[in-house]
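Repro case for the chain-ordering regression, as requested:
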Amino acid sequence: MSGLSRLSIKRWVGLVLLGLLLVLAVGEPLLLNGDPNKQNLSAGLISPNVQYWLGTDQYGRNMLARIAGGLRISFLLALFCVGTAAVSGVLAGVLAAWQRGWIDITLNFIANTILALPGLVLILIFAALIPGSFAMLYLAISLVLWVEFFRVVRALTLPVISGPQLQSSQILGFGPVYLFRRHIWPAIRHDVFSLAAFGAATSIIAMSSVGFVYVGLKPPTPELGLMIVELFPYYHEAPWLLAEPITVLFMLVLGFHLLADKPQ
Amino acid sequence: MAWSVGTLTFVLVRSLPGDMAYKIAAGRYGEDAVTIEAANAVAQELGLNRSALAQYTDWMWNLLSLDLGNSLVTGAPVIEEIRIQLGYTLTLAALAIVIAAMIAFPVGILSGLKKESVVNKTALVSSTFIRSQPVFCLGLLLIFCFAMELNWLPVAGFGGPSYTVLPVLTLALSLAAVSNRLITNNTRRAVTSGYFHFARVKGLSQRRAFVRHALPNILIPTLAFMGIQLIGLIEGVIMVESLFAWPGIGHGLSHAVFARDIPMLQGTALLMGTLFVLVNALVDISQYVLDPRTRDQEQ
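-- result from build under test --
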């Protein structure tokens, strides 16, 4: 029991952490109305003060607004990618386990082909096709995440489908939607949730990594990885500036990792 | 597997929206200077006017004879560039794996043996800390700490042994952060198991029981997981090499993406994939050697 309560505390911490970041991401444009791209060259590299809570960068752009903008992009990307990957992965996994035959073989072949390339390589190739495109990143990351969902859901669904509970429901004449909701979904729910939280962390890391090697979204987009590279030359003048996107990125990933912790 | 990697990169690159020749011409002469003539010249030179199938068989044939074409940026054959880069990458990866093992095994086994010890708690907190950031952030932190504040080590580049310390350490730490927790769990499972208690009861010393009965059962699942973790290693290699300007394949790959150097991109991606598959196979083989159960199944 003590193990269970400790785990749920972890989840709570993750949830609170993400909640705070979400408030910052959504609240900043509503309440403070900062523009992440508005330059003020005479007010560059200001330390945090009453007017600029997080200071300004080398072009005098409001760092609070930029951090909030970066958070919005990260959250949006994570939401899109995980949503797409989870829905398609669960559907494909259940379909493969249920139908077997050529559908199973085809889907497995696709999954294995994608798995043969490390995820980041695939994402980099996609990023190379159309540089600076959010849609390409979204597509590539979803494609990488999808495989995880597919494999786990397929493995978990197989025993359920051949189990006596589902088969007796089937004999009683219940349709596939009922069977999925009553028998399959409860068996895969926890793992799908964990995978989703991990997937969110992975997609955020992937986007910042691609931004960091300068092939992701293009400036002046306030993307966290890109901000880290851009602020790196100003480390000696303004170390706090560089610390801001790093800290936020760290909190984001930590939050999702804590949230992914599933009760045993 | 290597075939599927190759075909995948081929299909992806060929499915570029827009005209391929036009894109390459844009990469060579700049976006503004592209004319229809330039694009046509490129198409002629590279044989892009032929059917996709002809190009594909041609490309496969070249691949089999290890001809990956020439880099669009340097003009040198891709295979030559990759051969040079591969040595650097393998050095980096091998050193990182060795150091990661040297950190992860002692820490993991110690914290697995004593659950309430300081070692276990420190390991848990620091592993969570390291895992919660992208590899490049960890590298940046190490750069700030050891290169910019303490001035002990060079920031980046490649010139001598001192240049290898930070990249290797970054990669090793990120690998060890994951595997030491796994070793902890496996150790705990092994020493609380029935067979371990039995070994103790029949009179073996703690040390002997551990080496003979617990250690193999810790190693096997850890090794199996290492195979999965290799994805992390390959991705780590890309990021760490880019960050430290380490002249390896990962650096080559991210530069090829940045410069839209398609042959180079295909070459490096292909090699990364092949490397990934190869090391996975190595893990499977060592699994087979270490675990008598897998051999019994065969017979």
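Ordering looks correct now. Chain A has one domain: 4-31+51-259.
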